[in-house]
């Protein structure tokens, strides 16, 4: 017969109350993030090492901001996307050239005193990620350009993104924010510190998406294995900008990324129909547009050139 300790008995009573509230159909209950609860028991299958990364910075521009905090949490996963282990994390602060603004401190909780005299060691970072089979971030388009400035070791790694590598809208989710996605799965956490966000990201990877019945990690690994073609609609007429935006095009202003123009990433099967659309509806003529092959090794990076 199992004897319950005071804490265990209290937790089980709270969990029973939560289930009762949920069963009523009138309440939704959020449970605090418990990362070990997201793990799958090892079964002897082949595993690989992934690493979830999060960076806090001085602004929202990945090309000009400075990192003030870097966290990386390694996780071991099976090829079917099941997470079986979490390994010790990497965490360092960095003092930027200019003082941290009050707004950034309000958002992140990081003060100038916390980063004073601190510096992210690029060699330590490179050594830490040596065995990573994939780097994952939530909004990798923001984190990867900064990470690559911290250490060129990130350039050689394939990347995936929990925010953009799942079609959350199609799966029935209203928001792609990490906090909102986990809340939809009944989980809450203390957001905006790098380690907390990494652990939350790993918990998200372990969730089963209701409509597709696939783990989040399985879904983003499938996306990471695909190749895309980045099409730059160079010199597209100004009055077509709304049409391009509605079709998923984004405007590029970074010379290292490619031409100053509207661009979109497409699967190979989509390229030819899209070029015909551009010729018929946008340019009204035969076109020869610059294109770049995109894989997990250069996706989300600002160093891609055509």
Verbal overview:
This protein is α+β, with helices and mostly antiparallel strands. It has ten helices and 14 strands. 27% of the residues are buried.
Short description:
The protein has 306 residues and is α+β, with helices and mostly antiparallel strands. It has 2 domains: 33-224, 2-Layer Sandwich (Nucleotidyltransferase, domain 5); 228-294.
Report the β-strand fraction as a percent range: 15-25%
* 3D shape: globular
Helix tally equals 10
CATH architecture title of the largest domain: 2-Layer Sandwich
Distance between the termini: 68 Å
What number is the mean pLDDT?
A: 93
Low-confidence region ranges: none
The CATH class of the largest domain: Alpha Beta
CATH superfamily of the largest domain: Ribonuclease H-like superfamily/Ribonuclease H
Radius of gyration, whole Å: 22 Å
**Tally of individual domains:** 2
The major pleated sheet works out as: 6 strands, mixed
Helix content: 25-40%
Helix-and-strand structural type = alpha+beta
- CATH topology grouping of the largest domain: Nucleotidyltransferase, domain 5
The beta-strand count equals: 14
H/E series, N to C? HEEEEEHHHEHEHEHEEHEHEEHE
């Amino acid at each position: 017969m199992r004897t319950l300790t005071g804490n265990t008995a209290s937790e089980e009573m709270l969990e029973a109350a939560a289930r009762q509230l949920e069963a009523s159909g009138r309440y939704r209950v959020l449970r605090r993030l418990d990362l070990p609860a997201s793990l799958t028991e090892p079964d002897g299958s082949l595993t690989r090492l992934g690493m979830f990364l999060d960076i806090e910075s001085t602004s929202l521009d990945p090309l000009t901001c400075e990192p003030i905090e870097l966290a990386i949490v390694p996780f071991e996963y099976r090829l079917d996307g099941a997470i079986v282990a979490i390994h010790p994390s990497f965490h360092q602060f960095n003092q930027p050239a200019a003082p941290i603004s009050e707004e950034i401190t309000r958002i992140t909780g990081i003060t100038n005193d916390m980063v004073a005299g601190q510096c992210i060691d690029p060699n330590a970072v490179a050594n830490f990620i040596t065995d990573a089979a994939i780097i994952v971030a939530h909004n990798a388009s923001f984190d990867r350009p900064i990470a690559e400035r911290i250490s060129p070791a990130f350039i050689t790694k394939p990347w995936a993104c929990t925010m953009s590598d799942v079609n959350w809208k199609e799966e029935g989710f209203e928001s792609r924010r990490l906090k909102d996605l986990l809340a939809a799965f009944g989980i809450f956490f203390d957001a905006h510190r790098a380690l907390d966000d990494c652990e939350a990201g790993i918990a998200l990877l372990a969730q089963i998406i209701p409509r597709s019945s696939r783990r989040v990690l399985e879904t983003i690994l499938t996306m990471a294995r695909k190749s895309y073609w980045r099409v730059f609609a160079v010199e597209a007429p100004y009055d077509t900008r709304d049409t391009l935006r509605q079709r998923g095009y984004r405007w590029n202003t970074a010379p290292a990324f490619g031409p100053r123009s509207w661009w979109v990433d497409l699967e190979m099967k989509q390229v030819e129909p899209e070029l015909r659309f551009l010729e018929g509806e946008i340019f009204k003529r035969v076109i020869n547009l610059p294109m770049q092959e995109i894989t997990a090794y250069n996706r989300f990076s600002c160093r891609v050139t055509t």
